[in-house]
Write a structure and sequence with these properties.
By secondary structure, the chain is mostly helical. It is 81% helix and 0% strand.
Length: 72
């Protein structure tokens, strides 16, 4: 089983490759919300976190609904 956030993060990293300037600006970018969103490295981390949270919520919502249909 592979976490969906990891797949989304790898896809984002391969499509929008981080550059050296993103690593250099990392210290300053993590101090503000705007910088956190526009830095390619932190954007990948945000994407992984949000996709994993969304997937978990979807799983916990769907399991009780599926159990209704699976019980005889």
């Amino acid at each position: 089983m592979i976490a969906t956030g990891w797949v989304a993060g790898l896809t984002e990293a391969s499509l929008r490759k981080p550059q050296v300037k993103d690593f250099i600006a990392l210290r300053d970018d993590i101090t503000s919300v705007r910088g956190f969103w526009y830095n390619k490295i932190t954007r990948i981390l945000l994407l992984v976190a949000f996709v994993n949270i969304g997937s978990s919520i979807g799983t916990f919502v769907a399991i009780p609904l599926m159990m209704r249909y699976l019980q005889p």
